[in-house]
Amino acid sequence: MSVSKIVKRHLDAAIAEAGVQGHPPETVARTMLSFIIAVYREHRDLADIRDELQYAIENLDPNETYEFMRP
Hints:
The chain is an all-alpha fold. Helices cover 70% and strands 0% of the residues. The N and C termini lie far apart (36 Å).
């Protein structure tokens, strides 16, 4: 099984379990993000984490088209 499928399965389970207790999916996502950043901090420097998060921020819009430079 791929890592993506494993993580998605656990995310879906966390959202479902938290939902039963009245917590919205956004709260689960925010909490998971804090744990993800903690794992990153164990293995990566802050500038690298910042760059990865900035890349994710800059690519939030799924409808945005991007031009790529070719050599």
